Task: inverse folding
């Protein structure tokens, strides 16, 4: 248990893994950019788990989420939405700034565990081991096996606590909240020209060579 921790702030887009770990109930989920995190979290040395996903799959996921979220303005067509994403004119602002600023914070704040969605899909057990080590947890073999099973995408998709099937503002007939959970689904949305333009724009905004994303595995 980690009941001695002041908080765990989980910056995890639709992964919800930490919910399956035997942690303190003081678990806060957020999509906040790092600059909006309350000062008290840093002062109390709160442990923070941040999960980032590659930009191409992220924009696809975000597009479908905005399509089904009746609280959000109509996203428009894919092409215009892609341009707005590149300009940072979407909810929570620029993806580029979001992932980069949290990465920079990691360099100076040791209680921040930065995870990549692609790594989690590639080797779930390995990433759970890393997360448990960060949280000071030592699950048994049986507990780890259970957690790996619980966080499998198909299992989570059927979990009403995760798929938000009871949320009235989500029109799941348009798109499910838990849609695919794949790496590389962007290839089903980007045209060749859009991909080339996106790659060029990406190079101008992502300057830190230590922060590397994989858009396929």
Result:
């Amino acid at each position: 248990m980690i009941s001695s921790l002041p908080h765990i702030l989980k910056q995890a887009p639709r992964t919800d893994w930490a919910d399956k770990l035997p942690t303190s109930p003081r678990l806060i989920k957020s999509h906040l950019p790092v600059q909006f995190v309350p000062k008290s979290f840093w002062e109390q040395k709160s442990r923070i788990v941040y999960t980032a996903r590659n930009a191409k799959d992220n924009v696809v996921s975000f597009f479908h989420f905005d399509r089904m979220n009746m609280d959000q303005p109509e996203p428009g067509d894919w092409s215009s939405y892609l341009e707005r994403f590149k300009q940072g004119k979407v909810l929570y602002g620029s993806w580029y700034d979001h992932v980069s600023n949290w990465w920079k914070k990691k360099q100076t704040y040791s209680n921040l565990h930065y995870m990549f969605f692609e790594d989690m899909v590639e080797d779930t057990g390995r990433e759970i081991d890393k997360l448990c080590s960060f949280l000071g947890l030592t699950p048994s073999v049986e507990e780890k096996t259970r957690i790996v099973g619980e966080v499998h995408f198909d299992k989570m998709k059927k979990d009403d606590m995760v798929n938000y099937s009871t949320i009235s503002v989500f029109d799941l007939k348009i798109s499910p909240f838990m849609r695919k959970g794949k790496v590389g689904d962007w290839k089903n949305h980007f045209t060749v020209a859009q991909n080339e333009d996106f790659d060029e724009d990406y190079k101008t905004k992502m300057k830190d060579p230590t922060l590397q994303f994989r858009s396929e595995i």
